[in-house]
Amino acid sequence: MTHFPQEIQTDSQLLAIENTIAQAIAAARQQDWSLVTRYLQQLPQDKQKNQLLLKKQTLREQLERLALAVLYEGDFQQRWEISKILPLLGKQVINPLIAIVEDEEVELELRWFVCRILGEFKEQTVTLALVNLIQQTEEEELAIAAAQSLAQLGTAAIEALSSLLAKPECRLLAVRSLAHIRRRETITLLLPVVSDRQPEIRATAIEALGSFHDERIPPILIEALTDPASAVRKQAVIALGLRGDLCDELDLVSHFQPLLYDLDLEICRQTAIALGRMGNDRAATVLFEVLQSPVTPTSFKLDLVRTLSWIETERALDYLAWTLTTENEPICQEIITVLGRVAEPDLKTKATQILLDFFQADSDRQNQPQLKQALALSLGELGKSQAASTLNLLAVDREKGVRLHAIAALKKLSSRRQ
Fold first, then answer.
1. Phi then psi for 347, rounded to 5 degrees?
2. Which structural domain range is residue 200 located in?
3. Which of 31, 39, 164, 183 has an alpha carbon within 20 to 30 A of 210's alpha carbon?
């Protein structure tokens, strides 16, 4: 078997590449980007071999210009194909790609493709560019693509961001980027910054840590519930609200309760949601106490009604029944609506009886069409035969909307009997 010297083999390969590039250039002059793509796909697809052959500067520059031309001028499919080739050209394409992704005048689709391509380069300059893009862009699709590329960089991105944490002027940017990566390796880096002087850094770290199930994190989240910054308290409430499995172990209801009286109404709302997710009578009692207060804003009372309805226990329904007899029309209408959504089979009868008692006990409210419409709709959703006589009364109401809702509810009851 004849063995040719390495130099001759390399020269032969370079000649073939030069010929292919010449054909691609000719196709580019005709703006035939599909043909250009096909020629470029004929080049060696092995990264190591590519770098050996592309030591010739002229070839590198020609290939780069051709690939970028397809990226700029090609259609979606051609861009998709060329995005597989560009990483093979090596680090020299990083700066032109970063320039594209940072240019707000460039079309969104092209910048999206470039974000995906940059995820193939495990370089600090790429990490920083993607981080900056996430912070500055107003295009959600672009931010998502940049975050996915950061995650793809994995350890390389985490290492680069780790060094930035030591720089006060870069710490916020680094923490935000680590929050996007969502890998367990980031936990160790995020834990120390939960006590940072900047509230935004603390809030970002708490939000990111809240997505992990790690025994080190719940105590930190509980401590953050009393943070002086409302943004931090809010993220801690949201995170712990998703950990119903820890409700009894960490006595989360007791920790949440003070935040129902927070000066920031959004934190009050998020706390109500968190308590609703706990799904127990203790949480229901705490919510009811705030619902009863005459100083609780109506808008927040509506939130409390909804979260109480999620709990779906007999006690929670009793609290809603009591509130139904004491509150104004908007609150009553919301209670009637949420009672119609009770899904627990054993509680549907109780919810139906609460609605019937309300209709029969309060003659003044029988004349409020909105309440009667909501009542008919909810009774139809609950589907209990005990509601038939009340629905028959509503079906001959003087208000057309009430009649239509009642008739529709009666049809539902009839179909369920069959």
1. -100, -10
2. 183-276
3. 164
